[in-house]
Amino acid sequence: MKLFTVIKNIWSIKELRDRILFTLMLLLIYRVGTFVVLPGVVPAALEKANANRGANDLLGLINVFTGGAFDNAAVLALGVMPYITASIIVQLLGFAVPYFQRLQTREGESGRKRLNQITRLLTVAITLVQGGGYLQLISSMPGAVSPNIPEGLFWFSNIIILTAGTIFSMWLGERITDKGIGNGISLIIMIGIIARLPQSFVFEFQKLFGDSQLLLFFIELAFFFVIVMATVMVIQGIRRIPIQFVKRMVGRTGGSLPQSSARDYLPMKVNSAGVMPIIFAQALMFLPATAFQYISGSESNAGAQMFSDIYSFGYNLTFFILIVVFTYVYTALMINPTNYAEYLKSSNAFIPGIKPGEATASYIDNIMTRITLPGAVFLGFIGILPSIAASLGINQQFALFFGGTTLLIMVGVALDTLQVIESYLLTKKYDGLIKSGRIQGRATQGLQIGQPQ
Known about the structure:
The protein is mainly alpha-helical. The chain contains 19 helices and three strands. The protein has two domains: 166 residues, Preprotein translocase SecY subunit (Orthogonal Bundle); 250 residues, SecY subunit domain (Preprotein translocase SecY subunit, Orthogonal Bundle), CATH 1.10.3370.10. It has a three-stranded antiparallel β-sheet with strand order 2-1-3. A hairpin with a 5-residue loop joins strand 1 and strand 2.
């Protein structure tokens, strides 16, 4: 009953209703674009070639992120992936290059606008490179390109169309952010992922129903629900560091005396790195297999086979370790205890029992190191969970949703969207989406996927 009341309250807020409808309209336009095939591509031959490829490899993962547009050879085949890559590169440059650091931290709105321009230009460059590789992949598939179209025209026209498709997807995401319910790029990725989820459910149901193991299907759904709830808990998990502000009271003699004020806290997230460690680790996992193959000159080398098989123990162990390491590295880049200590000192605040300055920075650093460990281990487990699920007999399409970037993106974006809706409800004096507490998304720390820095 409360659900219908909440929906009624949401619909009664005109601004929120208009933003939701606007967002749904743009997402529908994006979904239509994922089915418009590039000129010169033969869909039947493309479907036949893709049928022989596993759903759990890199190309299958990209196809999930684009909502099937990658396998369809659609005009939006690359989606917003080049924009995400450009955003990540720009943010990493902000850690290493003084010019980008200045734009991010010191130049305010003008700096952010300049970073957005750089990100867009870098997106175009990346799209041209990735578009060429994508067209080469299509050309290598037997019969996928119509013989009636000249090769030069096929390449020239489609590289422009793919670039325009990515720019259009980026524009849709920015419009959703400005006039919709926010997080436009993230919502575009999530809608592509969710679009593949019902089909994965159906495939798994048909498989187990045909084997007279319908009970196992419901057990899998229950396990999937538990994984989602655990992911929500980790994303929302914070460690509150109590702080106390000091205000100066003027005495009769004209001097000032320190007096303690109300207490507050610093919220430190258990998972400050978000999905980035898995993305970095996944990118590096292609290097060992390539290195072994290059050294031995053969794909049959034992090392190359181990790191090419995502179900192998060596692959999953290495992947797990890389995720844990990158979680600590990315958290160290995102969270600077010295900056926190300086902020507290300039705000006349302190952590009870801890001296200001270096001691405060050391205290915050120790806490972040400790709370990052369970977050890093959980991320590592989430990263290898799709391989574990597939090894236990779950079909590869459904197994992708049991962890990895797909699950983290779905849960994170859903929490962000619910947080926006809840803020509207509370502003209009309605009850929130939950009875107690507040929904916490990823907006406080870490990288928002594809969002301007």
